[in-house]
Amino acid sequence: MKRLIQIIAVIAVIWALCYTVIISILLGESLLVTLSSKPLPQSTVQVQGTTLSIPAEYFEYTWKHHTKYNEFSAIDVPTSPVNVPAGSTLFITFDQTPKEITFIEQGNELNRWIRLDHSHHTIAAPDTPGIYTYLYSASWFEGSVSYVIKIKVQ
Q1: Number of independent structural domains in the chain
Q2: CB of 125 within 8 A of CB of 85?
Q3: What is the pLDDT of residue 37?
């Protein structure tokens, strides 16, 4: 009798796993994303060698089947620039680890954009004084989010 109960338990577990796999295949990632309870990730940028932390503003996102597009261009997002020392290193951080940072772009007051290396999750602040806007994007299983920060190099 004990052996029969063990066999039934094993069959139930195998059936549950197969059911989950079949549902995942039939519905794709859709069901898994919907069931995810992760909130929209937040990001900050830390200035190396200081306690300065710059909270990033959400720009656009697609998260668990919800999409938000910004009515502004990134350069026009209404956020105040934060004073940063010339040439400092800025570290991009998240409250949830992303699969990847997909891009980092730097814009200046003339709305000219440069794509930056994003392999190290860092930004090198320019040496030239001015106001700079950074737009960066990261992706997770649940979707992708783009963020904006503005810095003022003096």
Answers
A1: 2
A2: yes
A3: 79
